[in-house]
Amino acid sequence: MVKFFPEKNKLLGLIFSVLIFGSITGCSSLATKTDFYRPITKELHQNNFYAAVEKIEKAKTDKKYSHKNRFLYYLDAGLAYHYAKLYDSSNIRLTSAEDAADELFTKSISKAATSLLLNDNVLEYAGEDYEILYTNLIKAMNYLSLNMFDDAFVEIRRANNKLNLLDQKYADAATRFQEMSAKDTANVGLTYDYEKVNFNNDAFARYLSMHIYAADGLYDDAKIDLDWMHRAFKEQPHIYNFEIPEVNYYSQEKAILSVVALTGIAPHKDAFNLRIRTDKDLNLVQVLFTGEDGNESEYAHFALPVSSDYYFKFAVPKLVDKPSDVHKIKVFANDEPIGKLSLIEDISRVAHETYNAKKSLIYIRSFSRAIYKGLVANKMKKKADSDGLVGWLKKAAIDVGMDATENADLRSSFLLPGEIHVGDFEINPGTYNIRVDYLDKNGATIYSKYIDNVAVKKHDFNLAETIYLN
Amino acid sequence: MKHLIIILILTLFIIGCGSSTKVYRIDEKTVTDLSGKWNDTDARLVAEEMISDCLSRPWLTAFNAKNGEKPVVTVGTIRNKTDEHIDTETFSTDFERELINAGMVRFVARKTQRDEMREERFDQSEFASKETVKQLRAETGADYVLMGAIKTIIDQAEGIRVVFYQTDLELIDVESMEKVWIGTKKIKKEISKDKTKW
User: Which of A144, A297, A325, A352 is most buried, judging by how many CB atoms fall within 10 Å of its CB?
Assistant: First the structure.
């Protein structure tokens, strides 16, 4: 029998093997599984929101959402219930999502150790900051639909509090990393220079609070929030790189109809893999990477004299945008055109900005793991080395094993909208049948949403929400 | 040694995947601070302090001396201006109950209850017998409305969160708009969170 592990690494090898075995057979998995999302997103794209709810619940029953991914289930289900206008059910799940994110903020030592040996997929998913932020804002929309303005405001405050603490969160993480690094006797010398999060004022949150204040008759406060909304655009042009929407919270004679449209889908994560392989028998260095098309390609191979067999795999997630089909949104009241909606939030930009601070930490972890695994594999291959096909097969098996354990953590919600559009229209008080037309870049109507019997009252927040996730 | 390590690791996996539920009944006045959020203890503390303060202030004796009867009070809006979902009814109901039971004030139904009762009376006027139908326009008008708000100030750093709750209640004379009593209860909590767990 081949001894894969040198004596001093015997214990390490044993632990490593058991962890892999445990992870494969137990409650963890080594790669993100997203196939089960296909039927769910298909329903979303066809505006069958209740069917999407049913498919998410079925996926949960079928254990597609494991316990470590409970945040994702709560977020996805909460969003789907919101789209299906089941606001109470949505609130229950989104509250659970927020609680799960809060609970999982506490890092597990045992799981963290496992992730250092395997990959981040074995960790419990605590959600990305942008996912957590929109948990609160969608809940605010739920409460507004339920006419619970105080509760809607609670959610807006929670979102604002999170934004205020966002930069501090990563500053704290960087401090802790530097403290740990100082105690690192191996003196690896990796530093974590976190990228500052330049996002602390959300325009859509300000838009909602502006209208809630106005509905309460607190026009001074509404004006302050309108100013904050403008500041969001002026001070954060990297997020709000489009025109400030013209919004209106007050009309002396008439009433304001506010229309909010959620469109597109937020970015998802794709894997970027970089593999470096050396073969001392063939005197070959091979570099493979994930191309723009998502396929694995050989970047280059070099015929160089190499003294040892190394295999390093560096696997990290990258955010990939999913542009919306929607170019323009027109609104009609009782078949009369009353105006168009304006973009107020590009969730893709928010996602990139908030993800950047975390990205460098993910890269450092992945890089450290790649080096560590590559060196362990190299020792194992030296031990397994023998002439001929058998020796080559043993070494290839070790590389395959190492490759299988290193995968980018691609977990993210596939249900979060990509853009939020708003419009405030001054019309006579009354009851209206509203039509919202979604137009593509050629000006063709790709979808029309009808909302009948919308009561528009004076000095009230008359909110109509429409959703088209394409 | 090898077997010991395997058993240890497998045990950890099993513990990590499993869960169980245990339920214990505890005294209602036991202080249970689990998440650090507003809870029954906070509501009780606010109600207790506000009630004793409200009943010991001169507005009550002044009203009795002037009118020779107990004042009639109703509960208005108590706004939640915090970042938590707080059911303000929990302590306003405590407040109502204690004041009624102390026999020093009379309470009339709050607005939502009044609306429902009026619907009932309109229903009766249509469908109930003459002998049992209740009169319209025979309600007792409140002398005072209890209004207020709960607010929070939050400070947070390095896994420690300090929340300062301030509950302000006011008793307003319906006719003159005069504020006859203002009560404030402040609660400060420090919530620290472990950065790591096993």
Answer: A144
